[in-house]
Each structure stands twice: as C-alpha cells, then as structure tokens.
Amino acid sequence: MIPTFSYPAPATWAGLQQRAATAETATVAGRVRRIFEQVQQQGDQALRALALELDGASLTALQVSPAEFDEAVAVVPAALQAAIRQAYANIKAFHAAQNQPEPVVETMPGVRCWRRAVPVQRVGLYIPGGTAPLFSTLLMLGVPARLAGCPEVVVCSPPQADGRISPVILFVARLLGIDQVVKAGGAQAIAALALGTDTVPAVDKIFGPGNRYVTAAKQLAAAEYGVGIDLPAGPSEVLVIADATANAAFVAADLLSQAEHGADSQVVLLTDSAPLLDRVQAELQTQLATLPRQEVAAQALAASRAILLRDADQMLTYSNQYAPEHLILAVAEPETLAARVTNAGSVFLGHLTPEAVGDYASGTNHTLPTGGYARQYSGVSLDSFVKKITFQTLSRTGLQQLGPVVEAMAEAEGLAAHARAVSIRRAQLGEAGQESAGSSFSLEQLIRPSLRQMQPYSSARDEFEGLAPVMLDANENSLASVGGADFRRYPDPQQRAIKQALAQLKQVSADQIFLGNGSDEAIDLLLRLSCTPGQDAIVLCPPTYGMYEVAARLNDVRVERLPLTPDFQLPADAARLLAGSRAKVLFLCSPNNPTGNLLAREAMEDILNSFNGLVVVDEAYADYADAPSWITRLHEFPNLVVLQTFSKAWGLAGLRLGVAYAAPALISYLNIIKPPYNISASTQQLALQALADAPRLAALLAATLRERTWLSEQLAALPLIEHVFPSDANFLLVRVRTDATAVYQQLQQYGIVVRNRSTQPGCAGCLRITVGTAEENRQVVAALQQIGEVKPAVPEPATFPSEYKN
C-alpha cells in the first residue's frame, strides 16, 4: 500500500514533495568525500578494495578482457539480442535527428557569426549494474556518444559477486564499439572517472544515473574537480496523473515499474477519483505479490505517496512543483494536459503509453533529471556530448558598421583597450573603408554562398542547340508518339523562342527574362537563391497572395510582416521600417491579391531605394490596370524583380507559365538553379501561338474591363453588399453585411463558387469574386440578390449540372 493523503492543503504540498533521500544528504556527502580521498590516494587499489567491501567481488583485473567480452556475448539469448538491436535502431534514429547544422547568421552586413559542434573528447559512462544491471542505460548513453563522435568512451559498471560484468552490458558495449569497460561501481567509479587511476583515464564529462551516492559523487566531481556531468540523476521516480478513465491495473504496473528500481525510488499517484485510488491500491497488493523484486518495491512504496486532489488543475500544479523524472498522463485528454507541463524529465501520454517504453526502446533518452532537478535540467541528448563553439568574422563593411557600436559601449564601461582594439583597425582601413560603410544592394552578398560558384546542369539540349536530322544525344524514344502529336524530343531548356518574343513585346532584353513553371516556381527559386534555410527571412505585406508564405515554409524561411493600412496601402513609413531589415526578399503584389488595388508607386520607389534585399513586384494582374508596368523601371533598380504570368489576361492558366524580369546577373543565377527542362514542349508551343496573336489580347482585356465595371455597379446596388472595393484586377473584393462564410456556402447551392477571404487580415466579411463571362456575372448578381432577401427560398436551378450542387 502507498501512504494516502486526501485533499491536502496546497500549503502542505512542499512537505509531501520531499524525496525520501533528502534527510540523509549530509551523511551521504560525507561518505562520498571519503571515497574520493581514498581513490585519489590509492587509485586502482582503492577500487579493488571498495569492490570487495561494497559489491562482494574479489577482483584481480579492473578492465574487462577481450575473452570476457566473447564469453558474455555468447550467452546472451538470441531473442534478447534482437530486441536490443531494435531498441538500438530506434534510439539511434531519434538522436541522429538531433544533429542539425548550425546556420551562419549575418547579424548585420559584413558581420557573420556561427557555431560549430565539437565532441567532448573523453567521456565516462556510468552504468548501474548491481541488483538490476541497466544495459538499456548503456544504449541511452553510448548511442549519442558515438553519434557525437567522442574519441574516447570509458564505461564503468559495478561487478557482480563473481567479479564479472553483466553479459548483456558487455553485449551492448560491443554493439556500440566500446572496448574500455571497467569493473567499478558507485561513488568510487565516479571518483575514478573524475580523478583518473592507472586503469581508468580521467574524463572530461561523466554521464549516467545511479543511487544517491552516485548523484552526490557526480556533484562533488563537478563542484571541486572541474569535471562536467550530464545532470543530477539519482534514485528513479515516477508521477502518475490519473483520472476516472484510467485503468487501475495499468496505473499500478507503472508505479511498480519504478518502485522495483530500488528501495530509495519514489512513486507518486495523483488522482481526482477516490474509486480509482482504491482500485489502484488493491492492484498494487495483487501485482506486488508476484514481483521477483517484491521486497525492494515494497520499501519504495512505503516512502511514496498517493494523493487525492480536487481536479486536473490541482494535479498539474502539484506535478509541476514536484518536477518528476517521469510523468505519466493517464487521463482522457492527455494532449491538453501535456501542453501545460513545465517541469518533467520525460512525459508519457495516454493509457497505452507506459513509462517502460521510454526506459527501453521508443527512442527517447531515459537518462533524466531526478530529485526535482527537472526544473532546471533536460534529459540527456546528442547535445550533451558536444560543445558548441562560437565563431565570428568581420569584413571591411562589417567592421565599419559595427565598430562605432563597440567603441561607444566600451567607452561607457571605461574599458579603453576594448575600444582601441576596434578603432585602431578602423583607422587602418582609411578612406576606402569609410566609403564601403554605406549600406547598398549587392547581388553577390545576397546569393547564398554555396550557390555562388555553382554551375548549371548541362543537358543534351544545352550542348547542342536546335535540331538535326539525326538526334541521338538525349536518350529519347524516337519511335513513340501520342495521339499524332510529336513530343518525342526534349524541349528547349532555355526557352529561347519565347524569350525573344517576350523581349520584343515588353521592350526588354532576352537575358532579363526567366520562365518558370508558373510564377510559383520563380517565387520558390528566388527564396532558394537568397535565403539560407533556418536562418533568413522574407517580408510580406498582408493581406496578400498566400503562396509567398507557403514558399517560405517549404524553404524553412522566417516570415516578417508589414501589414497594409485599412485602405490596403503600404504604411507611410514603410521605407524607414524596412531600411534596417536583414530580410532577403520583400514581396509586393500590385495589383494586390485579394484586394485588387495598385500600391502607391511613390511608396514602392522609396522601398526600392532603401531595402537591401530583392524587391519582388508581383504583377499577375497588371494587364488589367491603368498603370505602367514596373518592367520599365528595371534599369533604375538592381534589386527589382517583376513577376508576370500567362494565367490571367492571356487566359492560359492551364499552361502554368510564369515570367520573372530582372537584371541579367540575377536571371543567370535563376537559370543555374532551375530544373533543366522546367517548361514543357507543349507549353512552349502554345505560348508562342498566343504571343503571335498578341492583338487578340487587347480585345479580351477590353471585354473583361467592361464586365468588371458592370459587375461592380450591380454588386454595389445589392442590399446584401456593404462595400465593393476599387479594383485594378480581374476580380472584385466585396464586403457583405452578413456572415461571409454563410453567403459563400449559399452561393455554392446555386452552383457558384467564389473565394472566401474573410479570415485574411483586414478582409473581415469579404468575398473575392472573379470577373467571369457576361452570363456568369449575371448569375452571381441574381444569386446574391436572392440570398440578400429576408428568409430567401434558395432555388436549385435546373440549368446547373448536378455535380456543382452540395
């Protein structure tokens, strides 16, 4: 039975949360200190003497021999070996994923900082092996040590009475490639690892759990001998939060799984269900009777707690104060409770997740902080076995920009030599250095370093331009054709014919044009070209086109936001706000999607003059606007990129052909990193046909603009419509007087699909309606007229195919 406490006042919780070993701390510390002194004075002799005294083992040699390794591996059952190998694979997979590259951060132009992980050179692993040999702990420590690349790994584990190390521990050591295994346990093993003996090398950092003597020894090693430790890992403990949905047998088994570790282990049950508490107590008696380590577990239970509390909030508060090594959430909604956990070594969610899976094989590490140290410490991970060293380097520009900051701060602290270390270098730079201090756009600095020297993929069609009577250079199938169409040959990878036609139409040079598989590909490649994943950022001006943020997420790029004003314009101080930004790309959609309006050109000019990254002006809808394209300004702004598309005015959305216009140097970089054949042959053929019939575009635009005017006037007259926003695109943003989502759904009952934009910033209550054919526009007006009537009877027009109905 666990001692039970019903509804204790919060003021008494601190006493209930005291670990059983706390009262003996002074006695333990004194004994540990004497052991350190003995090992320091007598070395290996002390280890042999203490092994005989504390473990009952008479040792002739402290280090495990190759023959002992062979004998041990031979006696480990095949089924256990297979289980260990599976656990090894899981633990390795989980910890290998923690090996993430450190980004180089340019904190300001010319100032680059980064970190590099360097393995701890010599580590000691303490593996408990007395009454319960914890071979699983060797997996938990040895796997990350090996993954981190630690050059020397020493294992210490207490010998059995026959002077041997547990065969399973030796099997795991061999699996990990560790051959230094020392027969030493308890505080004396920690002393040997900290101080060094003839057999045991002194290490830089000690890892591993143990009883209160081991914990005290690790703390002494860290405090007085300068040896690093993983964390204060003492006697095992578990806290179970269980509600009325918990299975009493499961809970009892979880409590006993920690109680059997040792008499000084502590288990805690928190519940808000008195019936469950009674059932758990009964289950404990039943299950305890069949445990091989019954006596040990019974002693641990006697010093443990079962506490009845009022509700989940109280239980979680108690748990966070207690800071358990293991926390099991045996409740109906464990994810909700888990989100509020602040102090715990490892958390196990739900009725089907016993703590035992984390002890052995799920993949997470079981070397965890105990004794309340989970308030300050994390469990062991790959990072525990490495040191993170910081590096920095300054260019001429970096020193000139950062130097005055450092000088001012050093002088304020009265540290003149610090200031001089900067000023003497700045003085040496002379006038050339001062000239370079100003901030300006530099394409070479913007391009990711790993891409600056990259060469484009050389395809067969790059090596030989055009066609010849016999084409045997690209491994094509010369026999196949589909439906009479001849697509046997790879397309022109540089799309030269389209670029020449566009260059003539847009009055630019062909080397200022990049063609992408839709504008989306150009957006993605611009981010890949300039933004280091996990390090750099882009700027968006919401509400705006959603694909910019999607591309950022796909490339692991942060998003900074400069929201538009209520009238969907750039803020008056946008250029000033962006001048200091270290973001690499700024997206401006003009005409904007979903609002339809043009952004003020003066504000955009100010940004182009002050922003140090790429300014991408997305003109997908520019053909519908009464304003010149920003393509005409490419020669003025080296950081300007203009996006256009064949999907809107050209009526070729299905072709997926987007265009980027920019400086030739930037275009050449895009051509380097693009896929070799990103534009299909059929797309190129149809795009050339459309460009050859360019005069037809003017007639299509005129018809669309007439319909836009008509639709805008009709919508504005409807009682349902509160406001129709001015548009320079082929769509209208409208705000309805009622629930926009409801109107959106009602339109679908009429077979009409529009875009619900009511959740976008500044667009509450708004729908976006594309200008359609004359018939389509009249249908949407009629439908909105009926929806706006009081208690409308929604018809189901027979003219709409059934597949369009909800």
From TrEMBL:
Q: Which UniProt keywords apply?
A: Amino-acid biosynthesis, Aminotransferase, Histidine biosynthesis, Metal-binding, NAD, Oxidoreductase, Pyridoxal phosphate, Transferase, Zinc
Which Gene3D superfamilies does the entry mention? 1.20.5.1300, Aspartate Aminotransferase, domain 1, Nitrogenase molybdenum iron protein domain, Type I PLP-dependent aspartate aminotransferase-like (Major domain)
Q: Write down the chemical reaction(s) this protein catalyses.
A: L-histidinol phosphate + 2-oxoglutarate = 3-(imidazol-4-yl)-2-oxopropyl phosphate + L-glutamate; L-histidinol + 2 NAD(+) + H2O = L-histidine + 2 NADH + 3 H(+)
- Residues annotated as binding substrate are 236, 258, 261, 326, 359, 413, 418
Involved pathway(s): Amino-acid biosynthesis; L-histidine biosynthesis; L-histidine from 5-phospho-alpha-D-ribose 1-diphosphate: step 9/9; Amino-acid biosynthesis; L-histidine biosynthesis; L-histidine from 5-phospho-alpha-D-ribose 1-diphosphate: step 7/9; Lipid metabolism
Per the UniProt entry, the Enzyme Commission number(s) are 2.6.1.9, 1.1.1.23
Q: Which residues form the Aminotransferase class I/classII large domain?
A: 484-784
Q: What remark does the entry make about the cofactor?
A: Binds 1 zinc ion per subunit.
Name listed for the protein in its UniProt record? Multifunctional fusion protein
Organism source for this protein? Hymenobacter saemangeumensis
